[in-house]
């Protein structure tokens, strides 16, 4: 009997990134409607209007900056979630930084999609002239911390969010 191939040796899955469409607001709302997905994002399902605003903002970012939070599609053109980059949007934390991030629907977890999509994000933001990115990850979000490590990111600072939670700021020079 042969032993299973370790997941680290498995080929990267095929992903495609696109600028989010108006319809993607509905897809994101649907694929993120799971308590595990939202555990580190407020703990509740977001309203559709939040995704409508978010996808519209990302289209503006893409037009103005050349990058955004892109919709992640698998090899069958199924919406898995998003990954990409945007200016850090808050008054606390790494102000002025370009943040990379990812959020996938629960069905897409554990298959390498987040890391594959984040690597494509790094290529695209580097091509857009960004020299450093950060990833803000909630303490306890071991899956996202693992993605930052696979990308070669290093822990920079630790922040306390306005809600009193601890967040880690990982950094990577491009």
Automatic annotation (TrEMBL):
<protein>
    <submittedName>
        <fullName>GNAT family N-acetyltransferase</fullName>
    </submittedName>
</protein>
<dbReference type="InterPro" id="IPR016181">
    <property type="entry name" value="Acyl_CoA_acyltransferase"/>
</dbReference>
<feature type="domain" description="N-acetyltransferase">
    <location>
        <begin position="15"/>
        <end position="174"/>
    </location>
</feature>
<dbReference type="InterPro" id="IPR051531">
    <property type="entry name" value="N-acetyltransferase"/>
</dbReference>
<dbReference type="Pfam" id="PF13302">
    <property type="entry name" value="Acetyltransf_3"/>
</dbReference>
<dbReference type="InterPro" id="IPR000182">
    <property type="entry name" value="GNAT_dom"/>
</dbReference>
